[in-house]
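Regression test attached.
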Amino acid sequence: MNTPFAAGQVGAILAAKAAGQDQLLPTLHAIQDVLGFVPPDAVPQIALAFNLSRAEVHGVITFYHHFRSTPPARHVVQLCRAESCQSMGANALLAHAEQALGCSLHQHSANGQFALEPVYCLGQCATSPAMMVDGALHARVSPARFDRIIAQLAQTLEPTLEHTA
Amino acid sequence: MSMQIFVPRDSTALALGADDVAAAIAREAARRQLDVTIIRNGTRGMLWLEPLVELQTPEGRVGFGQVDAFDVPALFDAGFDSSHPLALGRVDDIPWLARQQRLTFARAGLTDPLSLADYEQHGGYRGLRNALTLSSADIVATVTASGLRGRGGAAFPTGIKWNTVLRAPGAQKYIVCNADEGDSGTFADRIVMEADPFMLIEGMTIAGLAVGATRGYIYVRSEYPHAIAILDAAIVQARLHGYLGANVMGSERTFHLEVRKGAGAYICGEETALLESLEGKRGIVRAKPPLPALAGLFGQPTVINNVLSLAAVPLILDRGAQFYQDFGMGRSRGTLPVQLAGNIKQGGLIELAFGVTLRAILFDFGGGSASGRPIKAVQVGGPLGAYLPESEWDTPLDYEAFAALWAVLGHGGIVVHDDTADMAQLARYAMEFCAIESCGKCTPCRIGSTRGMEVIDNIRQGGGVQQVILLRDLCDTMLLGSLCAMGGMTPYPVLSALNHFPQDFGQAAPATRAA
């Protein structure tokens, strides 16, 4: 949904950036940093500002894993799925995370508060497995450490985190 | 006299609680009314010891490893004495560090990464000062003579690339740093950016002088927010102090530099996809020719180098080509920053002259697997590198020696797997990763990767020898028919896993194909 509120914020960001196409990625980052995602309804507005077709802007947004087209959950949990983390139990950690949050990769938790996303390397490979939660890095993440980190975030949530067994 | 305590700001240290440790030290010092200065240094590269807290003493810096915030009061109680259980003694004497040949990473962990004064005191900007007295051609000749080869994986001679750009006609040339370090098992670029950002800035400035480029970009992946923040801050400082901008060190030469953030696309580590991304487009691989050196960013002549290649340049211009050339073996000159990762006891950054064996890295430095189980396979060179079984661990780290084994040294990233690893599952993952990250331009990569997953699934479900023949055939197509290394090298991990560990695929063990 592109509320007039969001359109205004997108407009302000577009006004501040130069219109050369090389500024498209920095602009999309700026929009997502403010809104948490790039609203599909903002695509025509962005396309107009850059003198690009809507298809071109849509193509760029959807090419990059980083850009979201839907609002994120309150907390974004990114688990590294790459080889180094796999060698230290990332597959088991993922299974644990899916059970603890009650959702699969690319989904939101049952209470809608957590998004579980894959990431392919956070550069913490000497202390695998790694994850990033709301931009904060965690290394040597055991299932128990995962639970502690999530519990700390969930403490501030209503309703409390539901476990599905 | 104030106590100087170092707590790294490196992202691995942060991921293990370094900020909490620093806060606890500040709190404890205030409580005890002690005059303590906390310096947020970079990492020493001994990542398994992070957070590694160091105290400046008259005898040098002494270390305390794997410090938790809860340990801090006890450390103060013990007066940071060497009898504390976490004490490591003088950090410079730790064999893991003392046995390295640190050139690119000589400053890493010693300095505050955002202190320009620290950088200058530790040899910084001497290379650029020398470069400003040389002609462009002489700078290029020095880099060529050093034998430096691209550290991003392809190992192309840096000087030759620069020479092409120098000779190419173009109104606006560019220096682009590829800091899209997406390979699992690599973090050397990250450590350069987080521990010694001015070295990269200096290297890029020298490259600009060498080829006549006045503008540079560092393309950093979005998964590295800490590196981006440090680089941004360092660039502001370099500009303020006249090391960047319209009058570099008073020379009236111009070099502007900015950081661009990636957006989570592995393929943007491929140089032409990276250039497309910098131009604001989808990261689709370009066909070559034209080479980026002739028609790169915005169609202009462009030097595109990996972080480590550019970071090696200040030292070469400071100490001379011969100094650098004296390290290494064969055609692999200088040092290789090995990144030891995965299931390993003592992982981290090991910078050594080319020529050391994999076995020495795994056991002398790594101390064996983290799990304590036997090591089964090591993948060298990232997700597109081959898996090496024990019979190949005596190979020296050298580009040509690895090529002879149908393996790649790449950027020197090593991921260790213990004997619980299922090589067929890892081979399938290689195909899956290729399917997720393929840019989609060429068919062997776009379609081959998905078909590859399916065929490996069939093999794992007992599909028999016919499916294995099909997999080899498919890999052959990807290897020979892909536009870039993404599809072209995915067969390396797949086929090496199949060849060395056929049992994991439900196939008979190899008869006589040891090594």
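Expected vs. actual: identical. The longest helix of chain A spans residues 4-16.
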